Amino acid sequence: MDKERMVADELHRMFLAGELQITVEEDINNISERLRNGDLNLERLSGEDAFIKETVNEALRRVEQ
């Protein structure tokens, strides 16, 4: 499984567990779907909002452990 798909799955788990800030839930859902579909990769997320980047980085840390 590629890293984007793993991060997308972790973001979805974080969403379901209520671990996301409400202000970024919709954006994270969108990013998760785009990562899963291959419409977006982790390198292209650099221009996102600070909270979104922080959330994606947390998911990345979790999958790399």
How does this structure look, described?
- With 65 residues, the chain is mainly alpha-helical.
- The chain has helices at 3-16, 25-37, 50-64.
- α1 packs antiparallel against α2 and α1 (3-16) crosses α3.
- The longest helix is centred in the C-terminal third of the chain and has 15 residues, at 50-64.
- The protein starts with a helix and ends with a helix.
Topology:
Elements: H1 3-16, H2 25-37, H3 50-64
Please describe the structure with a list of short key phrases separated by commas or semicolons.
single chain; 65 residues; mainly alpha; globular
Beta strands, count = 0
SS-based class: mainly alpha
Strand content: under 5%
Distance between the termini: 15 Å
> SSE string, helix = H, strand = E?
HHH
The major sheet is characterized as: none
Approximate helicity band:
55-70%
Low-confidence segments = none
Number of discrete helical segments = 3
Overall pLDDT, averaged?
Answer: 88
**Silhouette:** globular
Query: Taking Cα atoms only, what radius of gyration do you get, to the nearest Å?
Result: 10 Å
Quick structural overview:
This protein has 65 residues and is mostly helical. The chain is built from three helices and no strands.
